[in-house]
């Protein structure tokens, strides 16, 4: 299959203005198209130049070769982390700055302004200027949180996609150069597992890294504020923060030991227990009571399912809406399903590696792999953009509601003051 001949529509984010990129307005026409008809492969858009598989693979391969050469000179192990940082440190640095501003400034200031607003209402004479200022500050921090968090999350997931594509490409190129002895020790399942399991961890774990960087700064700021408000008492809670880590680390071994002590009880033990009072009437009374309790417990399932069925229907409705608007018929949400042609191609390559080398067709296979990868990147890019679009607009609606509630109390209070 010649992927170079496949032409997809240009990516709408490429020519979008800053406001459209900030609010993800460029993807709304895609929702409209998905609502009118079932989306097909030709409805996807072209990938950005920075997301091209060939470009990312070549860039990572250059830095990886530098690491290998440096390792030969120094005798140390080459570091894949350093190679990945060299192709992503600029974007990652900007995202970390956005996260630090969001967590350490915006999210920290919002409860402070909210406290000042509440204190203003508790005063005998409400200062309108101060009240409106604090209400505006609470509303502003809510909007700033929304407008910084979601674009930052989108960029970190976009970066994770690029790292996954680069490492997957490097693994595939390496598989084409496997020696005969290495080929006998390596099967297609191991390489597919690397691509489907290990490389996919970029998409699920890298979004937590900026929080690790911003957490110490946020902790220091919050500790200063708490110490200023309640004094040394704030240190009591901090002293037990490490207890959670110990519970997590030792919880699983303790649970395993508790399971070892579990045993079985025979029916004779129960019979001796119930007849210990030498009363058959008491025994049957207990059995009858247990039966009645079981009836009530079973009847409880009906009332439990009464509202859970309604929640299940709401979930089905949500899934139907998502399927209508999702870039790849919901399949792109499941990375394994959306990349199944890629894994099939890799498995076929490993199994026919001897024939491929004999025909010197490695470049054709690499081209097809890059085509599969680019197609998945196109659907995945739209998926994360659609996800952030839903998130940012839902939060903007919530922020507008917050503004209306905050200022409505001020207006009601002002009206009461005028009437008096």
From TrEMBL:
A Pfam family matched in the record: ABC_membrane
Domain of life of the source: Eukaryota
Protein name as it appears in the record: Multidrug resistance-associated protein 4
Keywords: ATP-binding, Membrane, Nucleotide-binding, Transmembrane, Transmembrane helix, Transport
Species this protein is from: Orchesella cincta (Springtail)
Bilayer topology: Multi-pass membrane protein
Family membership: Belongs to the ABC transporter superfamily. ABCC family. Conjugate transporter (TC 3.A.1.208) subfamily.
InterPro entries, per database record: ABC1_TM_dom, ABC1_TM_sf, ABC_transporter_C-like
All copies of domain ABC transmembrane type-1, residue ranges: 105-227
Record-linked PANTHER family: ATP-BINDING CASSETTE SUB-FAMILY C, MULTIDRUG RESISTANCE-ASSOCIATED PROTEIN LETHAL(2)03659
Any single GO CC term annotated in Swiss-Prot or TrEMBL for this entry: membrane
């Amino acid at each position: 299959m010649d992927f170079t001949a496949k032409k997809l529509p240009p990516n709408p984010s490429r020519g979008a203005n800053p406001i459209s990129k900030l609010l993800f307005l460029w993807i709304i026409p895609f929702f409209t198209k998905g609502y009118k008809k079932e989306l097909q492969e030709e409805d996807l858009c072209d990938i950005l130049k920075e997301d091209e598989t060939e470009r990312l693979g070549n860039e990572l391969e250059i830095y990886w070769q530098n690491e290998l050469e440096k390792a030969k000179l120094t005798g140390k192990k080459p570091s894949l982390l350093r190679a990945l940082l060299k192709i992503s440190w600029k974007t990652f640095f900007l995202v970390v700055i956005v996260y630090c501003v969001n967590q350490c400034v915006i999210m920290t200031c919002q409860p402070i302004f909210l406290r000042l607003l509440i204190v203003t209402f508790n005063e005998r004479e409400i200062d309108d200027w101060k009240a409106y200022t604090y209400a505006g500050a609470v509303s502003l921090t809510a909007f700033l949180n929304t407008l910084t968090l979601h674009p930052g999350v989108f960029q970190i997931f976009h970066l994770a996609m690029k790292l996954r594509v680069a490492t997957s490409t490097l693994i595939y190129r390496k598989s084409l150069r496997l020696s005969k002895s290495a080929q006998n020790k390596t099967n297609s399942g191991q390489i597919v597992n690397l691509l489907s399991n290990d490389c996919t961890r970029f998409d699920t774990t890298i979004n937590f890294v900026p929080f690790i960087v911003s957490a110490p700064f946020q902790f220091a700021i919050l500790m200063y504020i708490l110490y200023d408000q309640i004094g040394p008492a704030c240190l009591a809670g901090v002293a037990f923060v490490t207890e959670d880590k110990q519970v997590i680390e030792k919880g699983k071994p303790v649970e395993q030991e508790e399971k070892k002590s579990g045993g079985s009880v025979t029916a004779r033990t129960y019979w001796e227990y119930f007849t210990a009072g030498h009363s058959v009437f008491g025994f049957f009374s207990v059995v009858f009571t247990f039966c009645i309790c079981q009836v009530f417990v079973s009847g409880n399932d009906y009332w439990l399912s009464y509202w859970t069925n309604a929640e299940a229907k709401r979930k089905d409705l949500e899934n139907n809406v998502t399927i209508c608007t999702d870039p790849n018929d919901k399949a792109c949400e499941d990375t394994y399903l959306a990349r199944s042609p890629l894994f099939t191609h890799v498995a076929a390559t490993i199994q026919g590696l001897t024939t491929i080398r004999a025909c010197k067709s490695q470049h054709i296979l690499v081209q097809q792999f890059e085509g599969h990868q680019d197609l998945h990147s196109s659907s995945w890019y739209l998926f994360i953009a659609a996800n952030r679009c839903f998130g940012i607009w839902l939060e903007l609606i919530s922020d507008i509601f917050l503004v209306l509630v905050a200022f409505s109390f001020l207006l009601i209070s002002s009206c009461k003051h005028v009437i008096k």
